[in-house]
Amino acid sequence: xxxxxxxxxxxxxxxxxxxxxxxxxxxxxxxxxxxxxxxxxxxxxxxxxxxxxxxxxxxxxxxxxxxxxxxxxxxxxxxxxxxxxxxxxxxxxxxxxxxxxxxxxxxxxxxxxxxxxxxxxxxxxxxxxxxxxxxxxxxxxxxxxxxxxxxxxxxxxxxxxxxxxxxxxxxxxxxxxxxxxxxxxxxxxxxxxxxxxxxxxxxxxxxxxxxxxxxxxxxxxxxxxxxxxxxxxxxxxxx
Length: 239
Ligand code: C2E
Ligand code: CA
Ligand code: CA
Fold this sequence. Notes:
Elements (H helix, E strand, L loop, with lengths): L1 E10 L5 E12 L3 E3 L1 H10 L3 H21 L7 E4 L11 H11 L7 E6 L7 H14 L2 E7 L5 H7 L4 E4 L2 H4 L3 H17 L2 E5 L4 H9 L4 E3 L7 E2 H7 L5
Parallel strand pairs: 2-4, 4-5, 5-6, 6-7, 7-8, 8-9
Antiparallel strand pairs: 1-2, 1-9, 1-10, 2-3
Helix pairs in contact: 2-3
Bound molecules: ligand C2E and calcium ion (CA) (2 copies).
The site of ligand C2E has 22 residues, from strand 2, helix 1, helix 2 and strand 6.
């Protein structure tokens, strides 16, 4: 019932495909096509979302193996890891390592997204997690940056590789939001952190992001999330 859809991230400078975010979909025999807002929270509450998160990685690993065997270039992915993955009955680090090892995946093809809100209530645990993932050789990306209330502390205390700027700023694309986005990108650039703008829907937004030095753009302007085969065909001209 679980399926993985991929949404492209475009390198803003070159205009080329950089990588994909892997996102879960649930195709239910009774309820039909379900989106994450319908199943992530219940799965988190029951501490089972780790199964889905790991299955996203496994599913990408299988697709990547096929592509490699056909001599095609494999683009990296980022996948979402819930805060509750750290509280699951399994050891999330070992499970990720096992998949990467079993499918002979190169570690620089796999980036782990953790939402800013996950840092609120379990900050010591998250600090440990960040450290551990880095030690194992994975990039860790902060999702939904700016959606919480502790963003600057988070930047000081946690060394994320990439900031994904929450789409709330682009949804209200006024002067105030533009100033905030520009400042985040400038600060991140000084700190040596790459940035992703989420929810890019218009060319005007893309041109603005280019001007302020944002690294990647993700949003409906390029594509909504699609199954692997469809997105591969759709992105051909940007490869
Ligand atoms: P997210 O990680 O912030 O993912 C981005 C969401 O924004 C996706 O929604 C995507 O379809 C949507 N989006 C992308 N571009 C645009 C745009 O231009 N405009 C608008 N309005 N929306 C855009 P989706 O796929 O429904 O996922 C919702 C959330 O569910 C994700 O937010 C993520 O937090 C969570 N999620 C999805 N898959 C997984 C998973 O496998 N594991 C876990 N733990 N969480 C997941
Ligand atoms: Ca995400
Ligand atoms: Ca996000």
